[in-house]
Amino acid sequence: MIDKRLIPFGGLKKEPFSGSHNGMRYLMKGDNGKESTTFTVYIYPEPWCFESTPEEDIQSASFPLSAEGMDLAIAWLFERYETEKERWNSALRDMMHTVNKSST
Protein backbone atom coordinates (compact mmCIF):
# COMPACT_ATOMS: atom_id res chain seq x y z
CA MET A 1 0.00 0.00 0.00
CA ILE A 2 2.38 2.72 1.19
CA ASP A 3 6.16 2.60 1.27
CA LYS A 4 7.30 4.50 4.35
CA ARG A 5 10.56 5.39 2.61
CA LEU A 6 8.51 7.74 0.42
CA ILE A 7 7.07 9.65 3.38
CA PRO A 8 9.40 12.25 4.87
CA PHE A 9 8.11 11.90 8.45
CA GLY A 10 10.57 14.54 9.69
CA GLY A 11 9.17 16.87 7.04
CA LEU A 12 5.67 16.57 8.49
CA LYS A 13 6.70 19.35 10.90
CA LYS A 14 6.73 21.73 7.93
CA GLU A 15 4.42 20.32 5.27
CA PRO A 16 1.53 17.83 5.19
CA PHE A 17 1.79 14.70 3.07
CA SER A 18 -1.17 13.26 1.18
CA GLY A 19 -1.98 10.41 -1.14
CA SER A 20 -4.61 7.81 -1.98
CA HIS A 21 -5.04 4.09 -2.34
CA ASN A 22 -8.00 2.53 -4.19
CA GLY A 23 -10.61 5.06 -3.10
CA MET A 24 -9.15 5.86 0.34
CA ARG A 25 -7.45 9.22 0.56
CA TYR A 26 -5.10 10.07 3.40
CA LEU A 27 -3.47 13.18 4.81
CA MET A 28 -0.62 13.21 7.32
CA LYS A 29 0.44 16.34 9.14
CA GLY A 30 2.43 17.37 12.18
CA ASP A 31 0.35 18.45 15.14
CA ASN A 32 2.30 21.52 16.34
CA GLY A 33 4.40 22.87 13.50
CA LYS A 34 8.16 22.88 14.13
CA GLU A 35 7.59 21.74 17.71
CA SER A 36 5.72 18.60 16.64
CA THR A 37 6.38 15.37 18.48
CA THR A 38 3.23 13.76 17.07
CA PHE A 39 1.41 13.69 13.78
CA THR A 40 -2.16 12.91 12.79
CA VAL A 41 -3.31 10.77 9.89
CA TYR A 42 -6.71 11.52 8.39
CA ILE A 43 -8.54 9.18 6.02
CA TYR A 44 -11.52 10.00 3.84
CA PRO A 45 -13.15 8.72 0.65
CA GLU A 46 -12.55 9.87 -2.92
CA PRO A 47 -13.22 12.14 -4.77
CA TRP A 48 -12.96 15.39 -2.78
CA CYS A 49 -10.00 17.05 -1.15
CA PHE A 50 -9.69 17.02 2.64
CA GLU A 51 -11.16 20.51 3.02
CA SER A 52 -14.24 19.66 0.93
CA THR A 53 -14.99 16.33 2.60
CA PRO A 54 -17.79 16.38 5.19
CA GLU A 55 -16.38 16.06 8.71
CA GLU A 56 -18.48 12.95 9.39
CA ASP A 57 -16.67 11.15 6.53
CA ILE A 58 -13.20 11.74 8.01
CA GLN A 59 -11.47 9.42 10.48
CA SER A 60 -8.18 10.17 12.23
CA ALA A 61 -5.53 8.79 14.54
CA SER A 62 -2.39 10.34 16.06
CA PHE A 63 1.08 8.80 16.27
CA PRO A 64 4.54 9.72 17.59
CA LEU A 65 6.66 11.59 15.05
CA SER A 66 9.30 8.88 14.66
CA ALA A 67 10.16 5.91 12.46
CA GLU A 68 8.21 3.68 14.85
CA GLY A 69 5.25 6.06 14.75
CA MET A 70 5.32 5.94 10.95
CA ASP A 71 5.22 2.13 11.11
CA LEU A 72 2.19 2.36 13.40
CA ALA A 73 0.50 4.89 11.08
CA ILE A 74 1.02 2.73 8.02
CA ALA A 75 -0.29 -0.32 9.89
CA TRP A 76 -3.36 1.74 10.90
CA LEU A 77 -3.92 2.84 7.30
CA PHE A 78 -3.70 -0.76 6.11
CA GLU A 79 -6.09 -1.93 8.85
CA ARG A 80 -8.62 0.82 8.03
CA TYR A 81 -8.39 0.01 4.32
CA GLU A 82 -8.94 -3.71 4.87
CA THR A 83 -11.73 -3.18 7.41
CA GLU A 84 -13.66 -0.80 5.16
CA LYS A 85 -12.60 -2.09 1.75
CA GLU A 86 -16.12 -1.94 0.33
CA ARG A 87 -16.45 1.72 1.38
CA TRP A 88 -13.24 2.64 -0.45
CA ASN A 89 -14.07 0.54 -3.52
CA SER A 90 -17.49 2.15 -3.68
CA ALA A 91 -15.96 5.62 -3.45
CA LEU A 92 -13.59 4.75 -6.27
CA ARG A 93 -16.42 3.40 -8.46
CA ASP A 94 -18.65 6.39 -7.77
CA MET A 95 -15.91 8.94 -8.35
CA MET A 96 -16.41 9.09 -12.11
CA HIS A 97 -20.16 9.44 -11.71
CA THR A 98 -19.65 12.40 -9.39
CA VAL A 99 -17.28 14.08 -11.81
CA ASN A 100 -19.58 13.45 -14.79
CA LYS A 101 -22.62 14.81 -12.94
CA SER A 102 -20.89 18.09 -12.15
CA SER A 103 -19.84 18.67 -15.76
CA THR A 104 -23.32 18.30 -17.28
Question: How would you sum up this structure, described in words?
Answer:
- By secondary structure, the protein is of the alpha+beta class.
- It has one domain.
- It is 34% helix and 25% strand.
- The chain is built from 2 helices and 4 strands.
- It has helices spanning 67-83, 85-102, and strands spanning 17-21, 24-30, 38-45, 59-64.
- It has a 4-stranded antiparallel β-sheet.
- The protein is globular.
- The mean pLDDT is 88.
Keywords:
single chain, 104 residues, alpha+beta, 4-stranded antiparallel sheet, 4 strands, globular
Can you give the helix content as a percent range? 25-40%
Distance between the termini: 34 Å
Weakly predicted, low-confidence segments: none
Element string (H = helix, E = strand)? EEEEHH
Strand order of the largest sheet: 1-2-3-4
Based on helices, strands and strand pairing, what is the structural class? alpha+beta
Q: What is the 3D shape?
A: globular
The biggest sheet, with number of strands, parallel, antiparallel or mixed sense and barrel status, is: 4 strands, antiparallel
Number of domains: 1
Radius of gyration: 14 Å
Fraction in beta strands: 25-35%
How many separate helices?
2
Average pLDDT, all residues: 88
Number of strands: 4
- Give the oligomeric state: single chain
